[in-house]
Amino acid sequence: MNILSIQSHVAFGHVGNASAVFPMQRLGVEVWPIHTVQFSNHTGYGAWRGRVFDGPAIEDLVAGIAERGVLGTCDGVLSGYMGSADIGTAIVRAVASVRALNPQALYACDPVMGDTDRGIYVRPGIPEFMREQAVPAADIVTPNQFELNHLSGLPTGTLAEAKRAVASVQALGPRVVLVTSLVTDDTPDDAIDLLAGEGGHFWRLRTPRLHLDVNGAGDAIAALFLVHYARTCSAALALGMAGASVYGLLRRTAEAGSREILTVAAQDEFVTPSETFPVDTV
Known about the structure:
This protein is an alpha/beta fold. Helices cover 40% and strands 22% of the residues.
């Protein structure tokens, strides 16, 4: 399997491509990473160095890959943090180029826009681009709960509301939606839910809540979910495998008291998760 992964990158730590590429490689996937930004570290530290690239830079790299004659062997495109709307345009064009050569290729869009604690934290124009162009072009989208609310314009305080919000996002175009973190009125205080929807069916995976504040877990689960879905063609199976792996990664990170997720040290969790959880039809 070959995956084109277009998202942010950091030299130190694990977010964006620095979180997504290695787990996919550990699963035996060939990954072609293109960075939308290259920073010294993630912005949660409050200070960083580096630069944001532009759309033409992304398109130039995709053109170079196409010139090698391999773009038609790409099985999927994964996108995350975009940095600017013109980078988003370059990503959607890259997806179109891949699909022109391989119509079966999947596009998984992690619609990175914000979270409950910080609100919208991307540049102006990106939330509109996500809803109007990126999400409609995608086969799979992996929002967190805040992003699900924003994309759907609907509340998600109950499981029924969350399912309606997922269906609303599916109506924009993607056939599969994975909500990477969900708390509803029936989620226990010591737990966190993941919800997947496909073809009018919904599945929930519930894991223990871990007390840690790290970045990059969403990037990892989007990558893992894409690989497992591409291999199984089942949102339920992909949810179970990806959710177990990321829980194991985060548990190991919490036990170590690390501010960065232990992508390398906990790499066995990507292949053989130390703990699995039931995937319930809801």
